[in-house]
Amino acid sequence: MRSFIIITVLSALVACYGAAVLPSEEEMVTIIYDDKSPNGIIMSRADFSARSQGWVLLSEANDLIPAVEGQEQSIRMVYRAQRGVKINMLSVSARLSGIPEVNNTPLGRNYIDVKVTSRPGLGLNSTISVYRWD
User: Fold this and answer.
1) Residue 19, domain member (yes or no)
2) Predicted TM-score (pTM) of this structure
3) Angstrom distance (rounded) from CA 48 to CA 53
């Protein structure tokens, strides 16, 4: 009986650890929205890093929202740059296992409103980044 309790406790600790560990770069994908891909293109973080030369980061938000069974989770980011600054690229990085739905206002303005929504029953672990061309 004692060994059964110890095994149960250890199993619970392993499950909690697995849920708490943040995903590595390899488990993340990035969705890019720019003038070449206005509907978004999915790429790895490594490919995005190679492609992002010449872009200037304006704003970034990192969010972690736990899953609720049967419910969607959402994050909203609103960013307004100074007058004359045009937002030319948006990137949303998320876990590969739950690529979210992304809705955003058009690029090319100094204002962007982004809403990222998970699939039902999944949480969100994402980074929303806003860029301008240098």
Assistant:
1) no
2) 0.76
3) 9
